[in-house]
Amino acid sequence: MKLSRLLGVLLALLGISGYLGVRASVLSGAASSPLDPFVLNFDENGNGQLSINGGAFADHPGGLSLDPTRSGLYSLTYTLPGVVNNGDIRIWEDASMTVLSDVIRFTDANGNLVGTTADRMIYYSDPGDSDLADVNGIPDVLMPNDSGGVVEQGNLEVYDYFTWAPGGAADNIYNGISDIPEPSTMVLVGLSLSGLLLIRRKV
């Protein structure tokens, strides 16, 4: 990544840190559910961090695991600290929601895509790179549970980002990084401060 692009990413992280700092303070006092709200930061290569109920972020890596929803295939999987709603969240590249970029899938050991039994999140991305999320691409059949999905925001030449926060008493936030060629640890640290959900470098 060129220095100018890296600086753009860092400036974006700093620019929204104030807003999400306020959001984090709200989350820390919103634990009215048996499942405390959590924030999961993740990328396409299994780097992850987890904060529960406003606590400090700790390493929470993912990895390739047998995909219970795609027989015989391995997919990038992150465990969750509790059960959440099952289903797929579509991440769109365009405001008209016609170009699918990524999918995060919430499921359980039996591959259920409906209900409230999901204890893992699977991250799929469009194929073409060597990232773990790209290994088998996005599934042909989806079970959306996302009110239409999420549209990426940002500068398409430098980075894209989106926020998936399903709302409700357990307002968990899922922060992802996609397609960053350099090690993403530094950006994950930025996410833990800013809450930016997805940064994506277009090639």
Describe this structure as you would to a colleague.
The chain has 203 residues and is α/β, with parallel strands linked by helices. It has one domain. Helices cover 17% and strands 30% of the residues. It contains 3 helices and 11 strands; from the N terminus they run H-H-E-E-E-E-E-E-E-E-E-E-H-E. The radius of gyration is 16 Å and the shape is globular. The N and C termini lie close together (10 Å). Mean pLDDT is 75; it is low at 1-34, 181-186 and 193-203.
Low-confidence stretches: 1-34, 181-186, 193-203
Q: N- to C-terminal separation?
A: 10 Å
Oligomeric state of this protein: single chain
Q: Got a strand count? A: 11
Number of helices: 3
Q: Which range best describes the helical content: under 10%, 10-25%, 25-40%, 40-55%, 55-70% or over 70%? A: 10-25%
* Rg calculated over all Cα atoms: 16 Å
Largest sheet strand order: 4-5-8-7-6-9
**Whole-number tally of structural domains:** 1
